[in-house]
Amino acid sequence: MCGIIGYIGDKTASDILISGLSHLEYRGYDSSGVALMNNEEVNVFKASGKLINLIEILKTKQNICAKSKIGIGHIRWATHGLPTTQNAHPHTCNCKNLTLVHNGIIENYQELKKELEKQGAVFASQTDTEVAAHLIAYEYGKTKNLLNAMQNAAKKIKGAFAFCAIHKEEPDRIVVAKRNAPLIIGVGQGENFIASDIPAIIEYTKKAIYLSDYQIGVITKDSIEIYDEKNTLIPNKIEYLPFEAVAISKMGYKHFMLKEIHEQSDVVRNVLAGKLLSADKKVVLDEFKLTKKEIKNIKRIQIIACGTSYHAGLIGKYVLEKFAKIPVDVEASSEYIYRDTIADKNTLAIGISQSGETADTITAIKQIKQDNSHVVIITNRADSTMARLADSLLPVSAGIEVSVAATKSYMAQLISLYLLAIYLYEQKEVEQYKKEIATLKQELLELPSKIEAIVENTSNIQRIAKKYSSYKDFIFIARGINYPNALEGALKLKEISYINATGYSAGELKHGPIAMLDNNMPVLAILNTGSVYDKVLSNCEEAKARQAKLIGVTNYIEEKDASLFDDIITIPLGSETIGPAINIVVLQLLAYYIAEYLGKDVDQPRNLAKSVTVE
Ligand code: F6R
User: Fold this and answer.
1) 243 compared with 120, residue with greater pLDDT
2) Residue environment code for 202-230, b if the CB has 16+ CB neighbours within 10 A, otherwise e
C-alpha cells in the first residue's frame, strides 16, 4: 500500500528518497513521485508504473537533484482515481508553493473540495490527497506558518492520514501529521528522516520517534518538535528500531518469497525459543497476562483477522477448542466491524496480523476492547499500532516479511496458536489429551527438520508446477484441521499466479462445486493420516470419477490408492494436529514455482499491498 519517505539534511535528498522508496516497494504500489526542495525552488517529479520510471526521469535532472537537500517521496496504491502520473503524489496547490504526500483516505474530501473550489482552487487530479494539499495551502494563506496551517487543516479533515508537507516559503523544514496511519521520524545527526515504515530508513538510522494519532511534527535537519492535539509541545520519545538492514536483502534467492519459505524452519525455532523447551515441560508464555483464575473464567474466544492471518485463525480454532476446551469463533475483521457483536469480559479476543497495521483488524480490536474483552495480539510487528492496543502481546518475531504473499508469518502465527492452545490447556489443568499434548510438543520441536526436508528437495514440486501452470482454474480440498490450508493454498496460488483457485472443504464438493469438475480442472487434495483420511480419499474418488486431474499432498498413501492420483507430493509423517504446519510449505512452494514458471512478479503481485491500511 502507499509509502512515505522524507529527508532533511546535507546529503542529496533524491538518493535517500529513492533508496527509501525502493525498500517500500514490497508494500505494493502503482506510481511514485518525489518533491525536491532547495532555497530557491521546489521541483516535483512523478511517474506511473514501477519506481524505475521515476529513477529514469531523475537521471535527466542531475542539477536539480545535486542541489536539493530536502525532499519528500511517495509510492501510491490507487484508491481515488486511476494509477496515472497525474494522480501520483506529491500533490500541490494553485501557487505550487505547498507540496504534500499522504497515506490514508480522506473521507470528507468531496465536501472540502466544493468549499475550496469556491475559494478558487483548481484541481489537476482525482485524488483526495490533492484536496488536502489545497486545504493546507489555503490555511497557510491565513496563517503564513506551515505548522499552524497543518494544525488547522487536520481539524477539518475526517478519515485517516499520514501527511508529510513542505512549503517554498519555509525551506528549512518538513511538517508531518498523523491520524490512523503509521508514521515515524528517523533521528539522525545533522539530518532527520520521515517514513511510513521502518525498512525505508533502517539503512540510515536505528533511532526513531513513533508519531501518535493527532500529533504534528516539525522537522529541521537539527531539530524535531512534536505537538499534541492541543498544540502543546511535548517531549520527544526516542525508541530503537527492531530491524537490521540485512533482513531486507534477498540473500542470493531469486525472490523474497522463496527466501521467506526457506526461512520457516528457523522461524519455528525462534517462536518456540524460551517457550517450549522439551516435550515434558510446560509451555512458558509470560506474555499472556491473564491469571490462572481469569483463564478458567474464559467462556468464549473470538479470533479476528484478515486474509492469510484469518486462515491461521481458523486452524487456531481447531487446536484451541480441542485442547483448551473453549468455544472459538473466527471472523474476518471486515465483517466483524459491521455487526452488532456480542463480547464481554469473559471473552478472550485474539487479533492476528502480520503487519499489525491492517485497518479493518485495528477497528475490530478497538470495537471488542470496548466490550472489556482481554485482547491478545499475535503479530510479526511488535512496533505496530495493533501491538500498542494489546493487553497481551505475542510477537512472533519472524523477521521482516518482504514478499507480499505471506508465508513465514503464517507459519509463525500457527506456531503461536499451537503454543497458546497448549498453554491454556496446561493452565486449565485439563486432563484429557495428556498423551496428545506431549506428542504435539515433541512434533513442534521436530518441525524445523521436517520443513527443511521439504525445502531442500523441491524437484518433484517444480515438475508438478510446470505441468499444471497452463491451467486456468484450480480447486484445493481438505477436511478437518487441514481445511483452512485448502483456503490458504488456493489464496497463495491465485494472488501470485492469477490462476483462479478456490479452496473447499472436501465434503462440500458434492454440494455444488463438483459441477465444475472435468479434465480441465486440477484438484489438489490434502490427505493427512488421521480422523478424516478415508473421507478425503472418497472425495478424491468422486473428483476422479468426473475426470478431474488429481494431485495428492500426502504423508501416507497405500499403493492401491496411489493410482487414483495423477501426481503425488509426499511429505514427512506427522500427526493430524501438526499436519497443517507441514503441508502448507508444499502449497507455498507449488504456488511459488507456478508463478515463477509463468514469469509473474512474484514478490509484488498486481493490485496487492503488503499492509492494507485502508478499510
Ligand atoms: C496474503 C496476505 C493477505 C494478508 C491480509 C492481512 O498472502 O498476505 O491476505 O494476510 O491482508 O494482513 P495482516 O496479516 O498484515 O493483517
Assistant:
1) 120
2) bebbbebbbbbeebbbbbebeebebbeee
- For ligand 1, the distance from its centroid to the CA atom of residue 305, given in whole angstroms, is 8
pLDDT at position 254 over 70: yes
Which residue's CA is the nearest one to ligand 1's atom 3? 307
* Closest atom of ligand 1 relative to the 610 alpha carbon: 8
Let me know: does 135 contact 153? Beta carbons within 8 Å.
Answer: yes
pLDDT tens track for 370-421: 999 999 999 999 888 999 999 999 999 898 899 999 999 999 999 999 999 9
Measured from CB, residues less than 6 Å from any atom of ligand 1 are 306-309, 353-355, 358, 361, 405-406, 491, 495, 611-612
Cα separation, 264 vs 410, in Å, equals 9
Q: What is the pTM of this model?
A: 0.83
Q: 284 pairs with which residues across the strands? A: none
- Which residues 6+ apart lie within 8 Å of 356 measured at CB? 377, 379, 380, 381, 382, 383, 384, 385, 386, 387
Q: How far apart, in whole angstroms, are the C-alpha atoms of residue 178 and residue 357? A: 14
121 Rama sector, left if φ>0, alpha if ψ -120 to 50, beta otherwise: beta
Type of residue found at 66: A
Q: What angle do CA 489, 493, 498 make, to 5 degrees?
A: 150
Say which amino acid occupies 259.
K
Task: Assess contact for 380 and 352: CB atoms under 8 A.
Answer: no
Task: Give the integer Cα–Cα distance in Å for 146 and 457.
Answer: 59
Question: For residues 357 and 232, what is the distance between their CA atoms, to the nearest angstrom?
Answer: 27
Beta strands of 188-293 (E only): which ranges? Answer: 192-195, 207-210, 216-219, 224-227, 233-234, 238-240
Beta-bridged to residue 552, according to DSSP, are 525, 568
